[in-house]
Design a protein that fits this description.
five-stranded antiparallel beta sheet; 24% strand; alpha+beta; 137 residues; 4 helices; globular; single chain
Length: 137
């Protein structure tokens, strides 16, 4: 099962439509990259990003998919970076730095989850509340 199983909600679509990463692309906006000296300089058109959206429908931060996995797996860091996240979206970036809503998927994010006990691709356990078959946590 995909960790982002749901179609985009109106709230998430609106948040993405109001926000472009940058133009022209100069540096990676991934929160994981920005907090390290190994940041990438660009995110290329067609690449996937994970977008974290607040309950108020504001874009909070971005991650490369693999960096989102790492951030959530890190107990303290994940809490600080992701504590206000309500929804996470998997989307692609187009050539002018906008996030494509077509084909994007989302999942609710339970920020109370014990991060230290979670792996992104675990079998059925996830802070993505609808990433579990029964929707529980």
């Amino acid at each position: 099962m995909s960790p982002f199983p749901n179609e985009l909600s109106d709230k998430a679509r609106s948040a993405l439509n109001r926000y472009a990463l940058w133009y022209p692309p100069l540096e990676c906006p991934c929160n994981w990259c920005l907090s390290r000296s190994t940041r990438q300089l660009v995110v290329n058109a067609g690449e996937s990003v994970v977008v974290a959206i607040s309950q108020d429908g504001e874009v909070l931060t971005f991650y490369h998919p693999e960096h989102f996995e790492e951030a959530v797996a890190k107990n303290g860091m994940a809490y600080e970076e992701l504590k206000d996240v309500d929804t996470v979206v998997s989307a692609t970036v187009d050539k002018d730095g906008t996030i494509q809503t077509e084909g994007a998927t989302q999942s609710r994010y339970d920020n109370r989850w014990p991060y230290s006990h979670w792996k992104f691709h675990s079998s059925g356990e996830s802070p993505l509340t609808d990433g579990r078959p029964d929707g529980s946590h």
